[in-house]
From TrEMBL:
GO cellular component: plasma membrane
Keywords in alphabetical order: Aspartyl protease, Cell membrane, Hydrolase, Membrane, Protease, Transmembrane, Transmembrane helix
Membrane topology: Multi-pass membrane protein
Major location (coarse): membrane
Transmembrane residue ranges: 51-74, 86-103, 123-143
Metabolic or biological pathway, per its Swiss-Prot or TrEMBL entry: Protein modification; lipoprotein biosynthesis (signal peptide cleavage)
EC number: 3.4.23.36
Domain of life, source organism: Bacteria
Species in which this protein is naturally found: Candidatus Onthousia excrementipullorum
Keyword Membrane set for record: yes
GO molecular function (one): aspartic-type endopeptidase activity
Function: This protein specifically catalyzes the removal of signal peptides from prolipoproteins.
Name of this chain's protein: Lipoprotein signal peptidase
Length: 159
């Protein structure tokens, strides 16, 4: 199972990273702003030199350092959880998203964001495909870890 998870994880990271970088290229080359669903969803080309919600704006070196630390941590966790397909997938999504944003920041000094939502009159911060990968991957890992812990508690109770 471990070998098949290595292959799956590698393919996931490569394909999803390619999609992310491709989308960012298309957005930065051809898009300014396009309203898709009135007062709800639009594609808006933004250069983000900060992190989530534009935290640490213009602190490129700090954000690169944080990204490198996160990349090492995620690679370590992925390597140590290759026996678990669900965790492998979760960590692979996070890794692909981190790499996509890291490459942007390293090469250009900023990240291309383009997904814009307005929810109940609130303009949600603009984000990108890599951000979705990171969030979905983290959710998968958290849920799997919670279920693992519950399984351990149930096992102890049944003894």
């Amino acid at each position: 199972m471990k070998k098949s998870n290595i292959i799956l994880s590698s393919l996931l990271v490569i394909v999803l990273l390619g999609i992310d970088l491709g989308l960012k290229y298309i957005v930065s080359s051809y898009l300014t702003s396009v309203n898709i669903i009135d007062n709800f969803f639009s594609l808006t080309y933004v250069l983000n030199d900060g992190a989530a919600f534009s935290l640490f704006a213009s602190r490129t070196y700090l954000l690169i350092l944080i990204a490198i630390i996160c990349l090492f941590f995620i690679i370590y966790e992925l390597k140590n959880n290759l026996d678990d397909r669900v965790l492998s997938i979760g960590y692979s999504l996070v890794l692909a998203g981190l790499l996509g944003n890291f490459i942007d920041r390293l090469i250009d000094g900023y990240i291309v964001d383009y997904l814009s939502f307005k929810i109940l009159g609130y303009n949600y911060p603009i984000f990108n495909f890599a951000d979705i990968l990171i969030v979905v991957g983290i959710i998968i890992v958290i849920i799997k870890e919670i279920l693992k812990e519950r399984g351990k508690k149930d096992e102890v109770r049944s003894k």
